[in-house]
Amino acid sequence: MNLRLNWKLCTILLILPCSFLIAFTHYPAVQALLNSFWNNASSRRPSKFIGLKNYEALIQDDKLIQVLLNSAFYAIGTIPIAIILAIVMALLVNSRLPATALMRLSFFMPTMLPMVAVANIWLFFYAPGIGLTSQILSIFGIPPINFLGDTDISLISMMIVAIWKEAGLFMIFYLAALQSVPQHLKDAAKLEGAGSVRIIFDIILPLLKPTTIFVAVNALINAFRMIDHIIVMTRGGPNNSSALLLYYIFDVTFGHRDFAYGATLTVLMVLILGVMATVQFWFLDRKAHYQ
Amino acid sequence: MMFKRILASVVGASLAAVATSVQAADLEFYFPVGVNAPAVATIEKLTNAWAQKNPQHTVKAIYAGNYEETTLKALTAAQAGKPPQVAVLLAIDLFTLIEEDVIQPISDIAKSSSDKEWISSFYDGFMVDTRFEGKTYSIPFQRSTPIFYYNVEAFREAGLDPKSPPKTWDEMVEMGKKLTVKDSNGNVTRWGTRIPSLGLAGAWLFGGLVVSKGDVLSTETGTEARFDTPAALESLKFLKRLAAEGAMAPGGITWGDTPKAFLEGQTASIWTSTGNLAFINSNANFEWDVSFLPGGDGPGAPTGGGNFYIFKGISEEEQEAALDFVRFMTSPESAAIWSIATGYVAPRADAWETPEMKSYSANLPQALVALDQLPYAYREFATFQRSKVTQFLVDAIEGVVAGDADPKEALKDAQDKANDVLDEYK
Amino acid sequence: MKNSLNRIFLTTIAFVLAIVWGLPFLYSIWTAFHPEEYSASFVWDAPLTLNNFTEAWNAAPFLVYFINTLILIITILVANFILCTVVAYAFVRYKFRWAGFLFGFVMVQLLISPEILIVENYLTLSSIGMTDTIVGIALPYLTSAFGIFLLRQTFKTVPKSLDEAAQMEGANAWEVLWTVYVPLAKPIYLAYGLVSISFHWNNFLWPLIVTNSPEVRPLTVGLSIFATVESGIEWSLVNAATLMTTAPLILVFLIFQKQFISNFMRAGIK
Fold first, then answer.
1. CATH annotation of A48-290
2. Which domain holds residue C128?
C-alpha cells in the first residue's frame, strides 16, 4: 500500500513501539561502548574516565583467548551436527516407518523443556559412577568418563546437551520443508529408476537449502545466546575449559561485579556478531545473485 | 479557653506519639537458605518468638534466596538508601561489605559488659572471620565445617579397622588403595575416597588441606592471598597422588553428588560438610561413621557458612533492637533449635549444654566430631574482591586436578594475578 | 527383499535414535517418581511415590513462581500482539522514505537479543528502578523483531482490494487493521503465540539477573535455585521439581501436538 504517514499515526504505530526495542537493543550497545572507557565506581570514589585502559586489559586477558577459542569450537561443533541430525530425524519421521508419531515426540520433547531443566537432568545423567551414562558404559565394560570434571571433555559435554536440545526444533523446520517438496518430482525420479538414496541426495537435499540457511542462522544465534547449561552444570569450568563468551561476560559482571570490564567484553561481542552478520549477508547476497 | 484545650490535647498527643516512636523499631531481616531443610519455617518460628517478647518492635523476616542473592539484595537495598537492619550473609563477604561501606561493627554497638561477655562466648574458631582492624563486625549463626565420613562395612571388607580411620595423608592414600574395589573388567566400582575439587566447594576443602600443612590461604587483613606456598603445593600434590595411585577417581569431582555417591557405594569415604549428617543418617543402608579430616602434618579443616551483620544508615533505636534480635537468635536455646533443625554447627559452648542438644548428640554422636575438630579449623578464603581472587584459586586447582597443569606454575600464576588485584588495597 | 531389509534396518536405527534421544527425560521421570534410594538404581519393582513432588512443592514457593511465570508470559504476549501488529501494519500499509532503513534497524534485534547486552540492560533497568519486578523482566521483549517480521510477511499477503474496499466504506486506519488485516493473520498469531510462550516460559538468564526476591521469580530461576544447595543435592527432589515446572508446558504440548508442530513449522517457513 502506498498511503502517506502523518505524524500522529507515525508516533503511535512506529515510534512508541520501536522505542521499547531500541531502548534494549541499540541504546545499550552504544552505552556499552561509552561505559567501556570508564572504570568501576566504588563507594570510596566515583568512576573515572580511563580511555582505552579496559581494552588494554582485554588484549592481555589470556582467559579471554580461551573463551573465544571455546566459543568458536562450540559453534563449529554444534551447528553442522545439529543440522545433520535434524535432517535425518525429519527424513525418518516423514517416512512410512512405523511409530513416526512416537519418534517425533521423542525428538521434539527436549525443545519444550527449559534449558535449566535440561541441564539439571543431564547433570544427573553425567554424574560419574552413579549417573545413567556411567551405568550404561559399565555394561559395555567401558570405564566411567568424567564428563564435567575433565578439562578436555567438559566443552564437548556441553555441546552434546545443546545438540540434544536443539535438533528437535530444527527437525520441525525440515519437516515443513519436506512436506512441501512437490510429489511429482519424487514420482518422476522413481519412474526413472532412482532409488531412495539417490532421491534424497539429488532432489530433496538441494530443495532443503533455504531451510538449512534459516536453521544455520538460528543455530548460530543460539550458540552465542544460550549459556544456561554452562551456568548450571560447569560454571565455565574446570579451569575455563567450558566457558563461552556470554558466560564470561555474565561471570565478570554479575559474579565479580566488574561492570566496566563487562561493558568492554560486550562491545567485543557485539563486534563479533556484527562481523558474522555482515559476512552472512554478503554470502547470502552472492548466492541470491547466482541463483 | 477552647483553644488552650485543643492545644493541650494536640501537644499531649504528639508527645505520646514521639514517646512511643522513640522506643519502637521496625526491623527488616534478610536471610538465605542453603540447605534442604525446613529452614524458612524455623527462622520464622524464632523470629516470631522474639517479636512476642518485644511487642514494641516489629520484625519482618525476608527469605532472600541463596547466599549470593541475599548478599546482592542487601547490597542493592543499602545502596538505594534503604538497607535491611540485619541480615545473615556469608562470613567471607566481610571485606566486600566493608568496602561497600554498608555494615557497622557489632562491637561498636555491643558496649555493655553483658554484651561483651556474649561476644566472647562464641567459639574462637568461628570468630576468626568476624574481625577486621580490631573490631568484631559479625556474629556467627549458621556455621559448618567438613568432616570425613566413611563406610564401616567397606573398611571391614578391606581388612581395615573401622575404629582407626586415616589420620594422615599417607594413611589416606594407603587405606584408599585398599578400599578401592574393581570389577572383572578392571573398572573401578568403588573408590577409596572422594574429595570434591571443582568450583568454590573444591576451594573450600582445599583450604582445609592447606591448614593441615601449617599455613593459611588468607588472613584477617583481607589483602593477602597465600597461594604460592609450600603448603598449597603439597595439598595439590596430595590430590594428584590420590588419583595417580588409584585411591580416588581422576579428574574434577563435583560437590553436589558426593553424598549420593557415598550412599550408592561408589566411594568408601567422602570429605563433605557436617551439614549432610541428617541426609546420610536417614538414607544410608550400611554402617557408617565419621572422623576428623585426614591431615598433612596434623588435623586441619576450613570453616564456612553465614554470620549476622548489622547495617549502617539505620537509626539508634533500630541498632538497639537489631542487637537485641541478634542476641536472641544466637542465644543457647535458639542456637540449639537452629542447629538441630538444619545440621549447622551451634557456634557456642552453652548451646551444646542445653538439654535439647545433649539428647540430640546422644542420639547422633557423630555431630560432636565437627565440634571436636573446631580447634584445628581456620577461616575460609576471603579477601577484598573476593569473587575475582577466589576464581584464580579455583582455576588453579581445577587446572591441576581436572587437567594437566603443573601445580607449581598454576599456583604461581594464581598468586601473581591475586597480587595484581590486591596490591591496590595494601 | 532388499526393501524389507532396508526397512528393518532403518526402523532399528530410528528406534535406537528415538530411545537414546528420550533417555535423559525418561531417566528424569523415573527419578522423580521413586524414592531417593532408587534414584540411581533401576530395580524394576521399586516402589513408586509421589512424596518427592509434595516435598519439593513445600520446600520452595513454586506456586508463586508459577504465577509469576504466567503473569510474565501473558504480559509479553499481549504487548507483543499489540505492538508488533501496529509496527507491521505501518511497514506494510504506508510508504515512507526511511522504511527500509527502519526495518533493517529493527531486525538487528534478531541477532543481538536482549541477553547479549545483559550488562547494559541491567544497568538501564536499575536506573529506572525496575529491577526485581515482573514488568522489568518483560520490558526488553515487549516489541519483538521476530513478531514484526512474521506479521509483516503475513500482512503483505493481504489483498489490496480488501483494504481499498474497506476504505471506500469509510473505515479509518484502525478499523481497516481490525477488520481486514488481523482476522486474516489469525493462524500466524497462534503460531507466534506458541513460540513466544515457550520461549518466555523457558527464559532463564535475563530473569535471573533481574530478580532477586522469591516473590518475583519465575519458574526457571526458582528451579535453578532449588537445585543448588550447600548440602548434597537430592536428585529425586530436583527431578520432581523439574517435572513440576515443565509439566504444564509439556501437557499443553501433548494435547495440542499437531497444532504445535504445524505452527512451529509455519513460524519457520520463509
1. 1.10.3720.10
2. 54-268
Closest C-chain CA to A100: C14
* Interface contact B188-A143, CB threshold 8 A: yes
CA–CA dist C181, C159 (Å, integer): 9
| C21 and C73, same domain (yes or no) | no
Among C116, C226, C234, the residue to mutate for chain A (most A Cβ within 10 A): C116
pLDDT, residue B18, reads: 45
Give the residues across from A220 on adjacent strands: none
Q: Which pLDDT does position B327 carry in this prediction?
A: 94
| Backbone dihedral angles phi then psi of residue C266, each to the nearest 5 degrees | -60, -40
Q: How confident is the model at residue C2 (pLDDT cuts 50, 70, 90)?
A: low
Give me the mean pLDDT over the C125-139 stretch: 91
- Show the low-confidence residues of chain B (pLDDT under 50): 16-22
Question: What ipTM was estimated for this complex?
Answer: 0.88
pLDDT at position C266 is 64
Contacts of B among chains (3+ CB pairs under 8 A): A, C
Which pLDDT tens digit goes with each residue over B350-382? Answer: 999 999 999 999 999 999 999 999 999 999 999
Q: Measured in whole angstroms, how far is the alpha carbon of residue A115 from the centre of its chain?
A: 12
pLDDT tens across C90-100, in order? 888 888 888 88
Regarding whether C193 and C81 lie in a shared domain, the answer is: yes
Q: Which residue has the cell 524394576?
A: C44
pLDDT attached to residue C231: 59
> In angstroms, what separates the C-alpha of C104 from chain A's closest C-alpha?
12
Give domain limits for chain A.
Answer: 48-290
H/E stretch holding B404? none
Class of domain B25-144+304-378: alpha beta
Looking at domain B146-302+385-425, its CATH superfamily turns out to be Periplasmic binding protein-like II (3.40.190.10)
Distance CA C53, CA C238 (A): 9
Q: What is the pLDDT of residue C180?
A: 86
* Closest CA–CA distance from residue B321 to any residue of chain C (Å): 25
A219-228 confidence digits (pLDDT tens): 999 999 999 9
Is B275 in contact with C212 (Cβ distance < 8 A)?
no
Neighbouring C-beta atoms of residue B421, cutoff 10 Å: 17
Mutate to test the interface with A, among B68, B99, B191, B254 (most CBs of A within 10 A): B254
- Domain count of the fold of chain C: 2
pLDDT in tens, C140-174: 999 999 999 989 988 988 888 888 888 888 888 88
Q: Among residues 190-249 of chain A, which lie with CB inside 8 Å of chain B?
A: 235, 237-241
Closest CA relative to residue B220, chosen from B324, B344, B91: B91
Select from C212, C229, C232 the Cβ nearest to the Cβ of B260.
C232
Q: Would you call C213 helix, strand, or coil by DSSP?
A: coil
Can you tell me the distance from the alpha carbon of B395 to that of B411, in angstroms, rounded to the nearest whole number? 9
Q: Is there a contact between A259 and C124 if contact means CB atoms under 8 Å apart?
A: no
Q: CB–CB of A119/A232 below 8 Å?
A: yes
Residue C246, burial from CB neighbour count under 10 angstroms (0-12, 13-18, 19+): buried
Domain limits, chain B: 25-144+304-378, 146-302+385-425
Asked if A172 reaches chain C (Cβ–Cβ under 8 Å), the answer is yes
Q: Are C221 and C204 in contact (CB under 8 A)?
A: yes
DSSP letter string, B290-311 = EEPPPBSSS--EE-EEEEEEEE
Nearest CA in chain A to B252: A149
